[in-house]
Design goal:
Largest sheet: none
Strand content: under 5%
Shape: globular
Radius of gyration: 10 Å
Oligomer: single chain
Order of helices and strands: HHHH
Number of strands: 0
Number of helices: 4
Structural class: mainly alpha
Helix content: over 70%
């Protein structure tokens, strides 16, 4: 959980990376992103990023 929060902070603080991650999720879908990363913590990270997407 701490790792996912740290990753979310790093993405949030890097606007270019944030835009690229959001773009990847929008174009490829969340399931494709989860499959590509293949780590259980990705579910938490994806939920955080989806929250950002809804807020924008």
């Amino acid at each position: 959980m701490i790792v996912a929060a740290k990753a979310a902070d790093e993405i949030k603080n890097n606007p270019t990376l944030k835009a690229r991650v959001i773009g990847a999720l929008q174009s490829g879908g969340t399931e494709a992103f989860k499959e590509a990363v293949d780590n259980p913590l990705v579910n938490v990270l994806v939920a955080i990023i989806e929250g950002w997407m809804q807020a924008e």
